[in-house]
Amino acid sequence: MIAHTPEPPYYAVIFSNIRTDIEDGYKETSMEMVTLATQQKGYLGHESARNDLGITISYWDSLESIRIWKQQTDHLLAQRMGREKWYSAYKTRICVVQRDYAFGL
Amino acid sequence: MIAHTPEPPYYAVIFSNIRTDIEDGYKETSMEMVTLATQQKGYLGHESARNDLGITISYWDSLESIRIWKQQTDHLLAQRMGREKWYSAYKTRICVVQRDYAFGL
Question: Which of B12, B83, B91 sits opposite A93 (nearest CB)?
């Protein structure tokens, strides 16, 4: 569940979001987007948790890989449906991971 | 719930963790650490969610603020108890947030 990422530097996209109460394809599309992300060039892993707030972090090898994933056709459609139906608010943060350390991994 | 952070660049500490089944002061200490963090110099906000995986992200104005918070006495004690009792595994990632964008905020 904790992503096995390489030595820094690498990149993280933090997606913090609040859901509407509209289900309508949300779960299916979420799962499809995870599958699709894992197939993208430069994908390194992801982590996800949700209570009232949802947090999904995906890890990438470069800003170019993030840019291509953001523009992927099915992902663009999912982003639009996210704004129209599934999310009342979100914030996306593009980060460089400079340093990391672990316990018990 | 979504942190109101300033214009990038700023810093993020992503703490991805898996709990043991030991409660013993976990909730109390978690709440104390949140309170304490909000009082630190350079603290900008935090976000948290948990299912099987827990993710807590704190946002900071500089690496120096993160360093001081990591070394804060009560926080050092909480980190030690975390390793001894509350977490079976965790990964901490120190990041620079380079870019962000929001919807519905």
Answer: B12
Tell me if chain A has a CB within 8 Å of the CB of B79.
no
- Quick check: B42 and B60 in contact, CB under 8 A? yes
pLDDT of residue A60: 98
Residues A19-42: tens digit of each pLDDT: 999 999 999 999 999 999 999 999
> Which residue ranges make up each domain of chain A?
25-97
ipTM value: 0.96
DSSP-assigned states of every residue in B25-92: THHHHHHHHHHHHHTSTTEEEEEEEESSSEEEEEEES-HHHHHHHHH-HHHHHHHHHIIIIIEEEEEE
| CATH among 3.40.50.880, 1.10.287.1080, 3.30.70.100, 3.40.50.2000 for B25-97 | 3.30.70.100
Answer whether A98 touches B (CB < 8 Å): yes
Task: Tell whether pTM > 0.90.
Answer: yes
Instruction: Using an 8 Å CB-CB cutoff, list chain B residues near A105.
Output: 89, 91
Torsions phi, psi of B52, nearest 5?
-65, -40
